Q: What sequence folds into this?
């Protein structure tokens, strides 16, 4: 076989290496495709939980960014926290379709997120993991219950429903061998800016001092990231 034949064979092998199934026209290797699927299915790719995918993401970051950009999505990576997720790209005036769904946060959801964000800050100051229990959450959120509310069980049920919702987004991750203790995902630091947290904090401080009524839910849209 001559040199040109060798070159042609190598090129053919390269073109078929990533063919994983009949009719596959994709270009990415299997592990890179797994990274892309995890990012798209969300809510995040966590280096602590996805130990095999994290190094692949760092290796193939450029091509993953390109694939996401084709879908009008942006890739957010925090190497220190080892967390990555997708969000809608800032397309300006371009009428771009939205791939990510919108999630509506109720009043209980938003004060739960605020509480969890505060726990992350405290844990960081001691270089520890942020761990909370269901009892911790209920105790801290109960201060926002309406004065005179006699349905305490109903308010607790709403808190439990919010916990389940936040667990679905992997912001709260159940600790093994414990039904009521959770670790707060570091991804929460990236999902809400310091300005958003400050706004929520001021709002709920006004509620606690009686300046605002907290009978109505506070709705806040956020991508399922």
A:
């Amino acid at each position: 076989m001559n040199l040109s034949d060798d070159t042609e064979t190598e090129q053919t092998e390269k073109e078929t290496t990533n063919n994983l199934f009949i009719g596959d026209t994709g270009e990415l290797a299997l592990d890179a495709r797994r990274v892309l699927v995890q990012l798209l299915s969300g809510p995040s790719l966590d280096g602590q939980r996805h130990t095999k995918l994290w190094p692949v993401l760092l290796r193939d970051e450029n091509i993953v960014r390109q694939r996401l950009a084709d879908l009008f999505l942006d890739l957010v990576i925090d190497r220190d926290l080892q967390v990555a997720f997708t969000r809608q790209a800032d397309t300006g005036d371009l009428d771009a379709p939205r791939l990510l769904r919108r999630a509506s946060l109720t009043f209980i959801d938003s004060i739960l997120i605020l509480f969890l964000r505060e726990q992350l800050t405290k844990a960081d100051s001691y270089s520890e993991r942020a761990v909370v229990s269901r009892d911790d959450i209920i105790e801290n959120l109960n201060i926002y219950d309406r004065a005179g509310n006699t349905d305490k069980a109903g308010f607790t049920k709403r808190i439990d429903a919010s916990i389940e919702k936040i667990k679905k987004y992997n912001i709260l991750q159940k600790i093994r061998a414990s039904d009521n203790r959770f670790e707060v995902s570091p991804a929460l630091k990236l999902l809400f800016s310091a300005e958003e947290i400050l706004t929520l904090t001021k709002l709920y401080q006004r509620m606690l001092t009686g300046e605002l009524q907290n009978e109505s839910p506070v709705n806040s849209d956020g991508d399922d990231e």
Notes: The chain has two domains: 3-88, 102-223. Residues 107-125 form the longest helix (19 residues).
